[in-house]
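Form 12-C: Joint structure prediction
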Amino acid sequence: MKTFNAIGVVGAGTMGAGIAQLIAASGVRTILYDVSDDVLAVAQERMRQSIEKGVERKKLPADAWATLEAQLTMTSNFDQLGQASDLIIEAIPEDMALKCRLFERLDALCPLETVFASNTSSLSVTAMAAATKRPERVAGMHFFNPVAQMKLVEIIQGKSTSQEVMVQLSDFAVKLGKVPVRAKDTPGFIVNRVARSFYGEAFRLLDEGVADVATVDTIMRSEGGFPMGPFELMDLIGIDVNYAVTQSVYNAYFQEARFKPHPRQRQMVEAGHLGRKTGKGFYDYD
Amino acid sequence: MTNGTVVFITRDAAQIQGWADLAEHAGYRVHELLSDVVTPDVLAVLSGASVIIEWLPAYGNKKSLFWQEAASSLQADVLVLSAAHDQMVTTTASEFNQPGQVVGFSPMAMYRSEGAVTLARHRHLGTWAEQAAQNFFLALKLNVCWIQDTPGMVLPRIYAMLANEAAFALQEQVASAQDIDTAMRLGTNYPQGPLTWADHVGLDTVLAILDLLWKTYREERYRPCLLIQQLVEAGHLGVVTGQGFYHYSPDIPSPSLEAQAGKSLV
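Section 2 - Result
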């Protein structure tokens, strides 16, 4: 079976850069493309810092940066992605029109054998695949943030994605040291769907005056053994990010009651209390 | 010299072992009643208790029927801790002449001998009973989190809803049971996958929590997944029957929930 030896990554934001770093560091030829040279420069600097830290802590060999540099090409020239003939993973903003336009351009640029994967966490992989002439070779490859630490990759099977491509991508994830799970293309896939009640029920408990924010979190940690309770976890993820995912899943399921967002989420976003990143969320941070 | 007698009322001695050990360690005599049938002997045991910890299922109205027969034989100053994950403590306390002596508790962490226990207050709860419950768990060296009575309490309610959603995803063939659990452990760092949790707690218990939420709120949101209902009807209750979302062979012992919870996940 085909293995992936030349990989393209589109979008050098946090996720794209993290994915490119992971793949290049595993010794696979990688091209990281972004429209903006400035974004690429920031990504390169961030990679260098993370590698240096790893070497300092003796988690990475001393020549880790040299290995990465030898495998990784960073470019703002779109046509260079044509050299990434095996697999292209996109990690551009979560905007369906943008993604479809990208896949149309990649479809025109790359040989028909090239597999396309989207790192989307919430959009329809099936719709993206339909923008190409190779829908059976388009799938989701959903990495989690931070890419280096999170072991999970959701491999998403669109309506037309072939079983062969699912196996190839799963094998590739294993090669990268990740744990792949396979899911059909449905809103929220596994994690972002099943996790909704963790937050939704917590808001219901607040509504009823059952317990305050800190008590709910304490119970989930000390009675349940969860590393974090729902409110502190929302503060970490970003209340705006969590709210956007909730809305996306809710609407994609045609307003299924189990996924209903809570007015308090919207209010926190309106107030600009987004969690740790703004210093204020369900808790205060210095 | 003891602190008095703690009487456990439960279907399954294994379920209460953690707390029974802690109570003995704290100087209590421990008596286990492994039946929900009220006999003169049972009444005699209850009348000698200083603390009663009752974990009978709400399913089949077992809990209410037991207390309808037994409550009038209790001393007024006996603390009754009643499992309140599948029946609101308000409902249980209504079977007592002295509802103030009943405190709700969540039994979900009973298998662990550490961490915190969640206790539920209700409208009739007496101040002395609240203090007695606080002191009892202090003696067992367990922290206490107080909440107001609500269907499913906090952890059982959230976990049952996670299991319900995971069951919907499984039923819709979004992914395998194994992949759903793996995704939730590694993607969100949950201590165990929701389907594994449900198999360990018992699918009948999970369904009882969902049914209570459904019956209480009358909202679409709490509709129990068909798959869970059918597994329970078929007698596939999880680890206890050898079959639930997963198959459990007696030859290959499945990792205990505790072992999984303690495992480093990332």
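Section 3 - Comments
Residues 257-266 of chain B have pLDDT under 50 and may be disordered. Strands of chain B lie at 5-10, 29-33, 51-55, 79-83, 102-105, 116-121, 143-148.
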